[in-house]
Amino acid sequence: xxxxxxxxxxxxxxxxxxxxxxxxxxxxxxxxxxxxxxxxxxxxxxxxxxxxxxxxxxxxxxxxxxxxxxxxxxxxxxxxxxx
Length: 83
Fold this sequence. Notes:
Layout: E1 4-8, H1 13-24, E2 29-33, H2 41-46, E3 54-57, E4 60-63, H3 65-74, H4 76-82
Parallel strand pairs: 1-2
Antiparallel strand pairs: 1-3, 3-4
């Protein structure tokens, strides 16, 4: 199973939702807290995004929580995790 990188910040309900969904799937999550290291925003901006959570699974940019949730509902998340 692929590892996920979750750019997040404390108190963000969407970040918490993303973490819970990924944990439910048994995904190993590397959390990168933008509120602790503001320089991490550069990574997010370079990907064309401006908000957290910013989710990567393997080398694939998933997007935010809504994108992750849509992938789960469509069955695409399991496929991505299995590849």
